[in-house]
Amino acid sequence: MSGPVALSLSAPAMKTxxxxxxxxxxxxxxxxxxxxxxxASWSFGPTSVRGAPITPPAAxxxxxxxxxxxxxxxxxxxxxxxxxxxxxxxxxxQPKSQGAxxxxxxxxxxxKADADLDLPQVGIxxxxxxxxxxxxxxxxxxxxxxxxxxxxxxxxxxxxxxxxSDGISMGTTGMSFSLQSREIIADSVETVMSAQxxxxxxxxxxxxxxxxxxxMAMARLNRPGLMIYGGTIQPGTSQLGLADLQTKENKLDIxxxxxxxxxxxxxxxxxxERADVVRNSxxxxxxxxxxxxxxxxxxxxxxxxxSLPYSSSAPAVSAQKRLECFAAGAAIQNLIANDLKPSxxxxxxxxxxxxxxxMALGGSTNAVLHLIAMAKxxxxxxxxxxxxxxxxxxxxxxxxxxSGKYVMEDLHLVGGTPAVIRYLIDEGLMDGxxxxxxxxxxxxxxxxxxxxxxxxxxKQMIIRKVAEPxxxxxxxxxxxxxxxxxxxxxxxxxxxxxxxxxxxLVFDAEEEMLDALSKDPESFRGVxxxxxYEGPKGGPGMPEMLTPTSAIMGAGLGDVCALIxxxxxxxxxxxxxxxxxxxxxxxxxxIGLLQNGDMIKIDAVNRxxxxxxLTEADFEARRKEWSEPAYKAKxxxxxxxxxxxxxxxxxxxxxx
Length: 656
Fold this sequence. Notes:
Elements (H helix, E strand, L loop, with lengths): L47 E2 L2 E2 L36 H4 L5 H8 L14 E6 L11 H14 L3 E6 L5 H4 L8 H19 L3 E5 L5 H12 L3 E3 L26 H13 L4 H10 L12 H12 L14 H19 L4 H4 L2 H14 L4 H13 L5 H9 L15 H6 L2 H11 L15 H5 L29 E6 L2 E8 L7 E9 L2 H10 L8 E4 L14 H9 L7 E4 L10 E4 L19 E5 L4 E4 L4 H10 L10 H9 L12
Parallel strand pairs: 3-4, 3-5, 5-6, 9-10, 10-11, 11-12
Antiparallel strand pairs: 1-2, 7-8, 8-12, 9-13, 13-14
């Protein structure tokens, strides 16, 4: 196996150990011209990790113990004769005692000669399924990844895991399975990778929880790995020429469809117009187009260093996305050659970089849950206070939906995520010295990319200068108080104001609130809407409140009411919203003790949220009258989740 490689612009030469190995299909020939954001022009080479030079390890020549791995009590790692870089797969491909393992591999397409058993094996984990635009194209992308891995002289094996469409399940009990799917994805990828002894992972996620799920698995495994984001969707177009509620242009996305219900209830859309918006909001493959959770997490993970440059901004249906998939083969070969692992990349500083780009882009509050969980998986301490610290020092710069005008495809056309990273590094808001999956630092990755244009006649309008921000600090604020003694997460862009005081209008379920809104929208004026028993245990699964927030915005009530919940908010939610209230109602948190009419003050300046007229004695008196409701889940996967899941403030993990 060769060392670090650079990709050429022609069809890559085959690097195989056997003439019978599968050839690379002609469709993978790369004929596009080189450019600063063309993956075909990238090179992957060793620099350093934490200041120490990376050099490819020499091939072992003696029998050595198998690599460190989890083994049940009573099992002892077996010695074997390793080859160059198959550090893990050699456990089953080299010992004569593992003949049955080798026989199974001979049945696969990959092994056609004895030498093929010496090749490093790469697990390609796709979150493909047909019933969701975010994921429906991932199997096709995995074919390009497989071809790139083959071209790099490695042995690819594709496998699949499950996913949940937040857009489809939103507003129904199906949403209880969304956050839980993150754990199932992490567990299943870890399971296959561990049982099959693959040497490295390339994961191809599409929808919201897919991204943190696969990264958590890579962190647990701590084998070479990288993520390829499935890519963002293109905007839709109303056939009736209708304008989106935010952009005031005929450019629709999934939130347009969510908000159409509130507009219909308020009488500002006819049934024909509502149906037109629904039919045309999602024109094809790709994740929801604004700076919602999928694009947020993809951007965070690129800034973290776990995906290739432009992965988060390249559209799903683009030649560049296909080139990225093929380029992953050379990148993973370099990671294997240098034994560069997630723990070398996912450092405390890298996580602060990840949070910084979330703040600058106005990303989803779900990033709080997911980055905390990802950090736990790799043994890094990230807390609510980490988010607040970064937020205090990072301005909100992006005019992206849901609070702004533009979508991810627009950002890609003016330089994409690397241009934003370069700008944040130049402004001292990100650290450019962190290692990435290219084998180079994040600063090296972006030093040749085109910078954001702030000055020409055709200057971009999506990212503002640090001196002229949308908001001087981050939009994500961590609030504490007598309603959230363990913290809560607010999304405050500045457009909705910085303080709200009003009487509580309490609902014990999302469905109750939607029913009340449809019957009497005017009763929501001036109130703080409280939706509780929607936390990780109470929901169960901490469902997102995009349907309620979209209904409020669509009904024209976004400026005259606030919403707090122990559930989550979608990346598409906007307005005066506070979620992740902990402790949650199901475990006796103060939010479960509120009554209609209790006066609530939300103060984003002082970062507090309190029931202003209630004393601790009042809470104690109400707590004596309160009893924990029965779990909504009685058996099955959600019951297991309820029994294992931790607090939202700790990332809702199930293995802590």
